[in-house]
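Hey team,

Filing this mostly as a record. A colleague (T.K.) asked me to run one chain through the structure pipeline before their review meeting, and I want the input and output archived in the tracker in case anyone asks later how it was produced. No errors, nothing strange. Just documentation.

Input sequence:
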Amino acid sequence: MSAPSPNPESERRHPDDRRSRPTPMLSRYTFVGRRRGGRREGETRNIYVDRHGLREWLPILAIMVLCWLDWRLTLDYIAVGGEEWNPIMAWALAQGEGMFGVVKMGVTTAGLLILLLHSRFKVSATGILVILTLYAALTGYHVYLRSEVTQRQVVGATLDRAAAAQSREAELAAAEAASKEESVLGEDASAPAAEVGPSDEDGVADDRGR
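Output structure:
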């Protein structure tokens, strides 16, 4: 009995079979599909995947946290007299803190999602690391500015307290001097006139007799 001949139709893959084509950048399987690598074994670079690993998500999440910190620290810095140097963000801030946060976080999130989709490409992977480094440096700079402002506020408050204390001391000294002067004048005004003694009266009578 001869073995059955293979059926070419059974070996032909269905047109909707995803294994017959590479993963596109966006599809209904993006972030929810099962494909985590290429179609072929060892294919890991310059490809799109459905799901990304922790190694790819961690820098994205770190950038989001640093972006949120940058947003809050920027508002704190502006509240004490600082300025927003980015003209686009300055416009958003002029519309209100809510618009400022929406624009800042929205633009950053959209850009990071695009980079995440391309994270298996060398250019995007490098870009993610560069952005992470820049945001870390920017956050450090904000912390430095905040410490400088806090130090100035502490020094200013100390000087204000010292000036107020000196002013109070000067007022007390002036009030004390005025009180002493009033006391002296009062004593002079209330002093009795000198009484004329008997010897003085005899002298006056002698002068008249002459």
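Quick notes for T.K.: The chain has a mean pLDDT of 75. Residues 122-190 form the longest helix (69 residues).
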